[in-house]
Amino acid sequence: MSARLPGGDRDEPWRGHWIGADPAPIPGGDDTTSGGLSGRGFSRVLFRKEFRIGSVPMTVPLRLTADSRFVVWVNGKEAGRGPVRAQPRRWRYETFDIAPFLEPGPNVVAVLVTYYGNATSWWFGAAPEDGINGDACLVLDCLPGGPDELVSDASWRVHRSTAWHSLGTFGVPCEVLDARELPTGWTCPGFDDSRWSTATVLTARHWGGLGRSRPPVSPYGKLLPRPIAVLGGDTIRPAAVLDARLRQKPVWASEHPGSRVVQHLESPGDPVCTEGRLPLSAALDADRTLDAVIDFGAMTAGFVELVVDAPAGTVFELGYREKAKSVGVVETTSDYAAGARYISPGGRSVYAALELAGLRYLYLTAYAPGAAEVTIVDVAVRENVYPHTGPAYFSSDDEEIDRIYRAGIRTVQLNSFDAFTDCPTREQRAWTGDGVVHQMVHLATNEDWRLAEHYVELANSPRSDGLLPLSVAGDFEKFQGFTIPDWSLHWVHGVHNLYRYTGNRERLVPYLPTVERVLRWYEQHLDEHGTLSDLPEWNLVDWSSVFTTGRTSIVSALWARGLIEYAELCDWVGNSGSGAWARERHAGVAASFEDFWDARRGLYVDHFVDGERRPAASQAANAAAIVSGLAPRERWRAIAMAMTDRSTLVTRSWIGGDGGYDIQKEEDQRRGIQRIDWDVEREVVRAQPFFSYVVHDAMARAGLAERIVDLVRDWSVFLDGGYDTFGECWGWGTPVHGWSSTPTRDLVVHVLGIAPDLPGFERVRIAPRPGPLREIAGSAPTPYGQVEVDIRGEKATVSSPVPIRFVAPDGGSRQLPAGNHHLVMPRALPTIDNTSGKPCA
Q1: Are the CB atoms for 289 and 246 separated by under 8 Å?
Q2: Distance between CA atoms of 66 and 83, rounded to whole angstroms?
Q3: Has residue 640 got a pLDDT over 50?
Q4: Which residues pair with 243 in a beta bridge?
Q5: Alpha-carbon dihedral sign for residues 321, 325, 329, 331
Q6: What are 328-370's pLDDT values in tens digits?
Q7: pLDDT more than 90, % of the chain
Q8: What's the rounded Cα separation, in Å, for the pair 496 and 14?
Q9: 79 near 101, Cβ under 8 Å?
Q10: What is each CA distance from 491 to 238, 392, 416, in whole angstroms?
Q11: Cα 368 to Cα 47: distance, rounded to the nearest angstrom
């Protein structure tokens, strides 16, 4: 794929027109003011333009975008994909240098545009405006230096393909390709497109459009350049073919390939000898299927590629799974269906998926219309993830800890596409709260911070009441249904993270009105005590069994953290009025937060109901009390010790456990039933992996960062059976969930101790807390270069391009200039480790 060019073309006027496939409006009419036009529905449209050049310029900057997504080929070679997910009125374009693909003489640019019709996890349609949107559309031109005729207009040829359709699965579409219907060679020069239609120039016909067809035009407005790096990665091939059998073809109970491939898993079959690898061949008849289970050895995410040799009409059902299907296990809502269907055109052919998938296991079923020899020649996944760049690293004298560091990077990368997502398999949604952990891992380990910044930009899309959607630039934002209010508070923390790491006022100032609107939404829910009560919508916190009903300590404390962070931002930009308001509200919460204090246990409880303090206590409530500053400082250390005392910790979830979602628990939760099955008078509910970032921040703030090394060892439970990624929850959920990756951030920020001391790393804070580790070393990115720390016993070496504030484990602090320094680092005095009852190192 070609490299994306810099975005310096943002002000270059567009010469290209928006073009589409049909000369007339979609039947059914339109009503711009009421949104009466529904759009066409799923469609894939092929666009072609042939042109000649005498010689190939040094660079040919091609820029383009489409609704909903595109793939562009130049002379038969893929040159790029896009656009990145975005809200329709903040639509993005891509710029590629296509000079490496061009030749003197005839050339062709071919673009496949997918229009999804129904909202997906990553796209939703603009409000209908009769003219530009509601169907596959494309705009393209060359910037100065490229061929003048390479511009989207009525000279392009266009064909609405019948080769694809979508099963329309909620969230992630299921791709179905009948390759017999796909024109052979349409992306290459010399293809005969004389029977194709000419493109229609799409003009805005509403009163405000005045017939415009070139950007900027509603609904997409002024198109914005791509803000992030180009995705890519290695091509991953199978580790093993686990099983291959011939079976009797069943009567399919489902239309979805992901369900079909496991439908007759328990039925008997005749083994096919494979020696555990491809190729795999079998003689079929109309009543037999070839079934294979292929293991890639670990999780991967990208475009599935399948090479087969089979007669025309042979069907290949593909099922993508994170975990191997277990015979006899009861299905739960976590057992999603994901996959694709490919119908062979005959002979040797290649299926290259257009839709991204996450998987470890590929379940494959093949069947033919008659007697046939079918061969599965090869399978691969072309990874398509965000690049992890730069020399940042972490190493220690403990391989378990090093493996955890690497696993967090891999987990986040498999959830870093054109946005931070929850998982690459069942959803691929850009959840507003989840992404804060991904962001912190990027800031601590990835030299490229553009996706960390874009996380905040993309989610800056508030509802009319000021709160942010559940997830953005996709179906949930389109539907404008209920949200998770505290997810907006994690986004506020993400804004504060960018303030600390980048110090970029120009970029951050536009987010502050949204931050204030989020925080002010909570004001209406303050009770007479000054804390939050009876909050509407879904106050999740995380999947642990915590209580937010009634008067809530947890959400009150998260709000207070947001208030104090906003006050700091206001001081930074000189907004004294809003800063004073935020501090006043924080003081109001602090004045009554003592009501939640259980002096007998030395912990804060979760909530009050009908004026009665309920006894349930959680890590979430107590960690939030510390990071928000609501708990008095003199209590922090004792609270931190108590909330991590393994003798009283219990792992509970309202909807999951024992390997999967619990259907009965889910139904109870929807009905507002929360069953307590632990000793609420003595036991403390442990945070799930997501909210553990707050728990670990609280430990560090309480002066117990040296214990984080042992706390993150809990994540080793996920790294079993070949998996090198962190799962969603303790004991259940997806095995690759970005929100669980806080240990990687923690090992850099709290163990190596590298963090901003002044905004934008004008000074770095280095506060190593190796705990039981005798040797640690690593580096982390800053806007000025890498900061490196190397600890060997009590000897410390630090290297920094910016001034340093070094804080030793014994609490001693000193300031140092930029450069290299060799220091003696006294260890901290031992504290009692409640995990073992022994002193900490």
Answers
A1: yes
A2: 7
A3: yes
A4: 293
A5: positive
A6: 444 455 567 899 999 999 999 999 999 999 999 999 999 999 9
A7: 83
A8: 36
A9: yes
A10: 38, 25, 17
A11: 32
Supply 94's token pair: 């891509």
pLDDT for the residue numbered 207: 56
pLDDT recorded at residue 23: 61
Picking from 570, 562, 567, the residue whose alpha carbon sits closest to that of residue 509 is 570
**Cα–chain center distance at 646:** 32
Q: Could you give the CA distance from residue 390 to residue 452 in angstroms, rounded to a whole number?
A: 15
Q: Is the dihedral of CA 570, 571, 572, 577 positive or negative?
A: positive
Residue 58: phi and psi, rounded to 5, are -60, -40
**Residue 677: how many CA atoms within 13 Å on its side-chain side?**
10
Residue 600: Cβ-neighbour burial (10 angstroms; 0-12, 13-18, 19+): exposed
pLDDT(37) > 80: no
Task: Give 162's contacts (C-beta < 8 A, 6+ positions apart).
Answer: 178, 181
Q: Are strands 684-685 and 617-618 parallel, antiparallel or unpaired?
A: parallel
C-alpha radius of gyration, the chain, whole number: 28
Q: 373 forms bridges with which residues in the sheet?
A: 283
Ranges assigned E (strand) in 311-368: 315-321, 339-343, 347-352, 357-367
Q: How far is CA 495 from the centre of its chain?
A: 17
Q: How confident is the model at residue 460 (pLDDT cuts 50, 70, 90)?
A: very high
pLDDT at res. 332: 54
Give the span between the Cα atoms of 489 and 561, in whole angstroms. Answer: 8
Query: Mean pLDDT over all residues of the chain?
Result: 92
Name beta bridge partners: 281: 375
The answer, yes or no, to whether residue 380 has pLDDT greater than 80, is yes
Rounded to an integer, what distance in angstroms lies between the CA atom of residue 369 and that of residue 539? Answer: 52
